[in-house]
């Protein structure tokens, strides 16, 4: 590990962690990122609380993407450095990735010469919230045609291809209101849900192989609520059901499957959908890079903005320094060594060089 690079990335990650950026409150972090990208020689533009940074080059157009927002921090979330680890809300998801992006913006070994790629970096807001509010949706139409995109979501420096699509549905059961001392005078909506809940509980993950990678489709009850006093037999019971579907399938197909499971026993209202992401590991630049470094490739068993990128016709993968198991955890952290490794690998992808001495390559593979 190069000491200078490690310390630089650690300091930049800590700087970003010191700026709170819970979804919907990204103004300050957007300003900080814009300033740091400008200092590194980028042409920068701000769109609301999203920032687009550009370094002109004569080669293929490659985009790096990272969201600025975090979930709300846990009450006992530590912030700081402990040995090789950087701690803080968003350390893995995904301010470590933002730090790598910003450091790559100065070009490292190619800074003084001709850039071998036309580099676009997009720092966007509201990823952790509902899909319809996602800040990337407004930015994508403003970008040029990209040859490749990398979303620096936490993957532990493993290439994660594609992503699961998802939908949320409110499944509403109806009953008849009554006093809980005389339940026979009503019909309990909670009990009316037992059949559907049992079928949901019995739903096993279903493997779907796409481009040789195993994705697992799941359907889960995630929330449930009534809107009555505690001594009232409820006449309404609403269950939120989250369905995750594999690449190659649509939200409409997933909704139809949920309707079939409910079998007319409740009203199904789709409240949020997000498409699945296509698998793009055969893109030539990407395939050559993966082969050169012997990188592990696995499916993304969750949703990321790779779905938006591939829907726009941009080959894209997830690849970032954060640890997926640390995302949204109390005590969230990231290893400095993982930051360095990510930087080295992306430096080779972008510039045909590694940030470590003695390692060289060609961006064309």
Summarize the structure.
The chain is an alpha+beta fold and 365 residues long. The chain has helices spanning 3-17, 27-39, 91-104, 136-139, 189-192, 194-201, 251-262, 284-293, 306-311, 336-351, and strands at residues 43-47, 50-55, 61-67, 80-82, 85-87, 118-124, 148-151, 159-161, 165-174, 178-179, 206-210, 213-225, 232-233, 236-245, 267-274, 297-299, 316-318, 333-335.
Going across the biggest sheet, name each strand in turn. Answer: 1-2-6-3-7-17-8-16
Q: What is the chain-wise order of helices and strands?
A: HHEEEEEHEHEEEEHHEEEEHEHEHEEH
Task: Compute the average pLDDT.
Answer: 93
Distance, first to last CA: 24 Å
What is the CATH architecture assignment of the largest domain? 3-Layer(aba) Sandwich
Radius of gyration: 23 Å
Overall 3D form = elongated
Count structural domains: 2
Under CATH, the topology of the largest domain can be stated as: Aminopeptidase
CATH class bucket of the largest domain: Alpha Beta
Count of DSSP strands: 18
Strand percentage, roughly?
A: 25-35%
Report the biggest beta sheet as strand number plus sense, adding barrel if it closes.
Answer: 8 strands, mixed
Q: What structural class do you assign from the helix and strand content?
A: alpha+beta
CATH superfamily of the largest domain: Zn peptidases
Poorly predicted runs: 355-365
Please count the helical segments: 10
Q: Please estimate the helix content.
A: 25-40%
């Amino acid at each position: 590990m190069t000491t200078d690079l490690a310390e630089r990335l650690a300091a930049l990650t800590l700087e970003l962690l010191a700026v709170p950026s819970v979804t919907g409150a990204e103004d300050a972090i957007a300003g900080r990122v814009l300033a740091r990208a400008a200092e590194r020689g980028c042409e920068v533009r701000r769109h609301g609380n999203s920032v687009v940074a550009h370094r002109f080059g004569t080669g293929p157009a490659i985009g790096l993407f990272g969201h600025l927002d975090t979930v709300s921090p846990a009450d006992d979330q530590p912030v700081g450095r402990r040995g090789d680890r950087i701690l803080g809300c968003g350390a893995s998801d995904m301010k470590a990735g933002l730090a790598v992006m910003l450091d790559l913006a100065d070009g490292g070994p190619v800074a003084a010469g001709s850039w071998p790629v036309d580099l676009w970096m997009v720092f966007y807001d509201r990823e952790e919230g509902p899909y319809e509010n996602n800040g990337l949706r407004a930015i994508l139409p403003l970008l040029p045609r990209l040859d490749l995109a990398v979303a620096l979501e936490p993957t532990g420096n493993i290439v994660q291809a594609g992503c699961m699509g998802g939908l949320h549905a409110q499944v509403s059961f109806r009953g008849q209101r009554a006093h809980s001392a005389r339940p026979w005078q009503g019909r309990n909506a909670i009990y009316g849900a037992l059949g559907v809940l049992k079928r949901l509980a019995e739903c096993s993950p279903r493997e779907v192989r796409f481009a040789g990678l195993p994705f697992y489709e799941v359907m889960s009850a995630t929330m449930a609520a009534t809107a009555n006093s505690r001594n009232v037999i409820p006449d309404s019971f609403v269950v939120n059901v989250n369905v995750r579907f594999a690449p190659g399938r649509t939200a409409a197909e997933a909704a139809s499957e949920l309707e079939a499971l409910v079998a007319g026993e409740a009203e199904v209202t789709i409240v949020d959908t997000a498409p699945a992401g296509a698998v793009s590991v055969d893109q030539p630049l990407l395939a050559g890079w993966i082969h050169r470094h012997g990188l592990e490739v696995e499916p993304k068993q969750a949703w990321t903005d790779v779905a938006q990128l591939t829907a726009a016709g941009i080959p894209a993968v997830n690849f970032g320094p954060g640890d997926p198991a640390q995302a949204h955890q109390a005590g969230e952290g990231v290893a400095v060594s993982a930051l360095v490794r990510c930087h080295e690998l992306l430096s080779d992808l972008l510039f045909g060089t590694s940030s470590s001495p003695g390692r060289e390559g060609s961006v064309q593979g």
